[in-house]
Amino acid sequence: MNKNPNFQYVEKALIKILMNRFSAFLPQDDLRKIKECLSMSNFSYDLIEDTSLFELIEEGTGRFPSPLRSIFSQLSLSHEKPIPSYYAPMPLHEPFMTPSEVPPSLNTLENYWKTIAKEFCRFWSNCPDDAQVRISYFLYWADQWLSNIPVGSKKESVPLSVYIRLVASIASVIQKGEHLTLLMGDISGIQRYLFDISRIGGGSVAKLLRARSFSLGLIADAAAYDLLERLGLPVWNLVLSAGGVFYLLAPKGIDTFIEQWKKEINQNLYEKYHGTIVLHTSKTEVSLHHLENDFPSCLTNLFQQIRKSKSRSFEEILIQDGKWNEDVFIHPVNTTEEFCKSCRRYPADAGNKERICKYCQEDEKIGKLIPKTKYIVFHQRNGDISIFPNVSVSLIQEEEDIPADSKWIVIINQHPIPQKGVPIQQRWMTNYIPTAPKGGCNHCKEQGLFTEEGTPLSFNCLASLAKGKERIAYLKADVDRLGMLFSFGLRNKDERYTLDEIMTLSRYLERFFAGHVNEMLEKKYRNIYTVFSGGDDLFLIGPWNEVIEFVKEIHQQFVTYVGGNTDVTLSAGIEIVRSRIPLPHVTKMVEEQLEFAKEKPGYNRKLEGRNQIAIRRKPVEWGDFEKILSEAKRLGKWCLKGCISSSFLHKLYYFANMYQSLQKGQGSAFKLVPLLNDQIQRNITGTFENKQQEIENWFSQLLQIDVAEVRWKWAHMKLILEVAQLYRESEEEDSYGNQNIS
Ligand SMILES: [Zn+2]
Ligand SMILES: [Zn+2]
Fold first, then answer.
1. Does residue 738 lie in a domain region?
2. ipTM for the complex?
3. Per-residue pLDDT tens for 308-340?
4. Nearest ligand to the C-alpha atom of residue 211
5. Which of 106, 490, 508, 548 pairs with 445 at a CA distance of 20 to 30 A?
6. What's the confidence (pLDDT) of residue 274?
């Protein structure tokens, strides 16, 4: 095993990639400046010397710079390929990007390459001396400047920054056409553990929940980091990490080493999480040629191994020397001890007044740190969160507080680069949660309670911020058919796709679900709480009216983000409840809603679910959802202003039931129409400013039950009324069925 990667070799390969493009795209004058800049530095290399790796990876750059095509405009689940769309060449600015069908002009691209050259010189004349640190800064620089230009016209959807990162990790483990190990890790059981342990009522679970999901989300990175440390490999060899799954490149011939690492990690996980959370791994030794030309079969192989591993969890720990190790089945629990008031899983800390265990105390502390965190620092011991015996993590707000023993600094979102002589990496992360403002939460004050500034607001507090009825909404959403998109969807005309394409797609999704969602919450939806958001899914909780506005907007933006590709869609489930209903219960309910959205066809659909949102067990298309919301808002407003009575809305609900029977062939329209007409005559009377005509029209239109638009309204009437009644504060006389909602 090669304990020390040849960093000079790695750097040479990376600069070669850049120089290749500079030589092709830049005028002689600019090229000369670059060469001068390189030769003046302390660590200049003989760039004429070629590397064998380089011959294998570079297929020629072409003579002209090309634009970056959106990876979403390559995804297709049918034989039709979508219309190509492109990104403008520019530095990484914000997580959200809009592709355009009009590619940027050659002139724009050439000018951008001149900017890159200038920025590279600026970076190079100012970069750290330590080779490993310098390469990590270079990769960070590449993320900033090379994220919106492609590898070349052959890999037109892969940003140069992603390719450079992959080459860096390949060059760190092999030098010639040798083999390397591609390792896949999968941390399973996180969500189950998260909701199982969060049983505290009263909405105060908010204090711990984000901390818990945050810490659990770090397990995958920590496990990968632990292996890299043991192997003496740099952090960039973790080529992908999202949603608990990671890919890592390592040298060949390290099977026994990996088994030992995995066993120790799982032993730790077993002790801490009692068998709920498990690390599964799979690995394959591949040549560079194989990696580039036959990646789909590598991946199939890796997934098959993971599936097999999932069917025999913890075997490595439970079986020792071919025999069952019975000790591990017994967790030391002292029955006379009192259990933690919060999680009821671990013994209460005797020194704690509130009888809370040490884990819950740690989570309360972390919960306050998360929204202010700018850097996640990995070190060996004594951090804020201890994950494995040799991996500890600290959440840092200011650069000067970064501990001296830091080994790896993850810069969250777009905070400034710390100058600490330690390898860095940027990550998108949703770390926003609503917290008590200066002077404490008003809602709590009214209850005679005090919530300290910066403490996460409880779900009761969030409910008090809702319009109309004090309800919170749980929202769960994810990308439809993700597995298929990542394999079948990415294949080109030769039925191929490559690791850097997988990395690219994963990064774009992470950018949206972690980076963009965080921006939306920070800037606009400041009362919405993140349980988690990243990878390809999100789980948020907030005042009901803000959550429904948020989901409407995030869906519209997702459509824009993927360039309107109809194969890349989002489904969501919403559950609106009182804040005191226990989290695990509502979580199950909102998961059911999401399943409804994915499986049950909505109005006017015949077979398929997906690309829908489900609320109150009713899957509706996104367009219908927007219409339902605006109708509900309208009725809610009329009701609030006293233009129509709530008892009239109740009668309308009754008519909606009648209409449904009618659709099933029961009852008759002869009865419904006159009855409804009678009610309208009796209820819509009097004058309501200038609204009179509008209201009359809205209701009398309902009588024309043969008109398509009216049929649509009747089909969705119950949902419209259920949402409309949420706008009314009064808690009386709302009895539309489900007791959770009213
Ligand atoms: Zn506890
Ligand atoms: Zn409060």
1. no
2. 0.95
3. 988 875 665 555 555 555 555 555 555 567 888
4. 1
5. 548
6. 81
Q: Which ligand is nearest to the CA of 448?
A: 2
Residues 450 and 575 grouped into a single domain = yes
Please give the helix or strand (H or E) that residue 157 lies within, else none: none
Contact 184, 247 (CB under 8 A): yes
**Residue 423 to residues 129, 188, 408, Cα–Cα distance (Å):** 12, 28, 5
Q: What is the pLDDT of residues 601-653, one digit of tens each?
A: 988 888 889 999 999 999 999 999 999 999 999 999 888 888 888 888 889 99
Mean pLDDT across the chain? 88
| Higher-pLDDT residue of 253, 113 | 113
Distance 531 CA to ligand 2 centre (A): 18
Residue 639's SS3 state is: helix
- Ligand at minimal distance from the CA of 464 is 2
CA–centroid distance, 462 to ligand 2, in Å, is: 7
**pLDDT tens sequence across 482-538:** 989 998 899 887 788 999 999 999 999 999 999 999 999 999 999 999 999 999 999
What's the gap in Å between 200 CA and the centre of ligand 1? Answer: 10
In a domain, 331, yes or no: yes
Count of structural domains, the chain: 4
Ligand 2 centre distance from Cα of residue 415 (Å): 30
Conformation bin of residue 206: beta by default, left when phi > 0, alpha when psi is -120 to 50 = alpha
Which ligand is nearest to the Cα of residue 435, counting in written order?
Answer: 2
What three-state secondary structure class fits 209? helix
How many whole angstroms separate alpha carbon 546 and alpha carbon 528? 8
Please check whether residues 390 and 510 belong to one and the same domain.
no
The parent domain of residue 250 ranges over 180-427
457 Cα to the center of ligand 2, angstroms? 6
The closest ligand to the CA of 446 turns out to be 2
> Residue 527: nearest ligand to its CA?
2
Q: 89 lies in a domain? A: yes
Q: Is residue 2 assigned to a domain?
A: no
Task: Tell which of 565, 586, 615 closes a domain.
Answer: 615
If asked whether residues 423 and 448 sit together in one domain, one would say: no
CA angle 345, 347, 351 (to 5 degrees): 140
Does one domain contain both 519 and 607?
yes
537-543/529-534 β-pairing: antiparallel
